[in-house]
Amino acid sequence: MDGDLVVSVGDKGYCLFPWVDGAHLRGIDLRVDQVGALGALLATIHQALGQVGTVLPERSATVRAKVTEPDSAVAAADRFLDHIAGIDSPRSFDLMSVRLLEQRKILLNKYGSHRPGDEMPKGPFGWTHGDMQHRNVLWRDGKVAAVLDWDRIGVRPYAEEVARTAQVQFGGEDGRLDLERVAAFAAGYRTVIDLAECDLADAVERLWWKRLTDYWVLEFHYDRDDHSCDDLWGPGESLLEWWTGHRDEVQDAFATRR
Question: What is the pLDDT of residues 49-73, one digit of tens each?
Answer without folding.
Answer: 988 665 677 777 789 999 999 999 9
